[in-house]
Amino acid sequence: MFCPKCGKKNKEGAKFCANCGAELKRRSNNEKSASTKEKALGSQPAELQSGSKAKNEVQKSDGSRAQKVQKVRKNAWMRWTITIAVLAIVAGTGFFIYQNNQAPSNTKSNSADYTATVNSESESSSSSSSKASSSKASSISFPKSKVEGTIEDAFGDISGTTSVYVSPTDSSEKVVSHNGAQRAASNIKLFIMITAYNAISEGQLNLDDEYTLKDSDKVDGTGAIRELTAGTKLTIQRLIDYMMEDSDNTAANIMIRELGGMDAVNKQIKKMGATDTKLERMLMDTDALKSGKDNYTSVTDLGETLKKIYNHQMISTKYDNAMLDVLKQNKNRTKLPHDLPNEATVYNKTGEFDDYGVENDAAIFGNTKGSFVIVVMSEDGQRNEQINQMNSFGSVMYKGLLEENE
C-alpha cells in the first residue's frame, strides 16, 4: 500500500509508514469497488468513442445503403415507366396499323354489297371483265334512268334500228338498248386486231415481220394501201395501224390471211365470249355478201370487248396497252366524239356501210374524273340523221358522266 503523505510503498498490512511514520488506513471494499469502477470508467471513453465511431460508421453505412436502395428503386421505377410508355406506344401503333389494314377490307366489302345491288338491276354479262369489276362500284356517278332517257331522246324517233350500250369502265353497271346482232361493217376489224395481238403474245407472229404487197391483195373501199405499188414491204405493225387508223380494207384482208384465215379469227372471237360476233366474209367480198354472208357483232360484244382491253383483261397489260394506243390514233372522229372538248381522251373504232344504212361507233371516253364505254350501232337509217344524233348523244353523255359528275 502507498503512504498518503509521502507516497512510499509499504508492506501490505502495515499500520504506519516506514518512511514518515504517518498512519496508514486500509480502504474499504466500497472504496476498492469505486476505484475499480473508476479505472473501468477511465478505460471506457476510448471504447465508447470507438463504439461511437463504429456506430457512426454503421449509421453512415446504413445511410449510404439506404441511399443506394433508394437510387435503385428510383432507377427501377424509371425503367418500368419507360417500359410501360414504350409498350403503350407500340400497342397504339399496332392498333393504328391494324385499323388501317382492316379499312380496305371493309371498303371492299361495302363496295361489293353495293355492286351486288346494282347487278340485280343491271343486265347480266358473260364477260370476265364484268365479273372482275363487280368487286367495286364505279368511280363516276351512273344515273341509269337519266342515261335511258338520254338514249330515248337521241334515237327514239329516228329511222332504222339503233342499239346502244353505255357503261363505266370500272363497273358492271350498264344500260343496253335493243341489243342484238347487227352488220358490223368495219367494227369487225377490232376483233381482227385482237386476234393478231394474241398471236403475237403466243409467239406465232412478230410485229416486225414483213409482208410484200401484191396487186391481188388490193380491194376497194376505205384505206390507202391499194394506192401503194406492188412489192412494197409492210410490217405486221404497219398493217395493223393501217387497218385500225385508216380502216384499211386491204390491210384487214392481209391480216386475216396472215393469221390463218377466218376460222382463226372466229376461234378467238369464241374464246372471248362474244356470242353475237362472227366473221363470215373477207372485206369487200361482194359475192359472199350476195350469197347472204356478212360480218356481225352487237353493242354488248363491242362494249364488253373495249372494257376488257381498257382494264387489261383481254390479253395482257403490254398488248392491251398496245391496242389502246392504236385505237387512240383512229382518224375518224366524226360520230360520237365529234363534239367533245379537246381535253377528252378518246379510243374508238367506227364502221359504216352506206348500202345498208349502217353507221356504227364504239368508243371509250375519259378525263381526269373517270371513263366510260359508249357504243351505238345503227342500220337501215339515214346517214345525216344518224351522225347528227350520234354527235349530240356523245356530247350529252360526256357532260353528264364526266363533267357534271360530282
Summarize this structure briefly:
By secondary structure, the chain is of the alpha+beta class.
Q: What's the SSE blueprint?
A:
Layout: H1 29-121, H2 128-133, H3 144-155, E1 161-168, E2 175-177, E3 182-183, H4 189-201, E4 210-212, E5 233-235, H5 236-245, H6 249-258, H7 262-272, H8 286-290, E6 296-297, H9 299-310, H10 317-328, E7 345-353, E8 358-367, E9 370-379, H11 383-403
Antiparallel strand pairs: 1-2, 1-9, 3-6, 4-5, 7-8, 8-9
What can you see in these coordinates?
The protein is rod-shaped. It is an alpha+beta fold. The strands form three sheets. It has a five-stranded antiparallel beta sheet, sandwiched between helices. It has eleven helices and nine strands. The chain is about 50% helix and about 10% strand. It has one domain: Beta-lactamase. Helix 3 (about 145-155) packs antiparallel against helix 11 and helix 4 crosses helix 7.
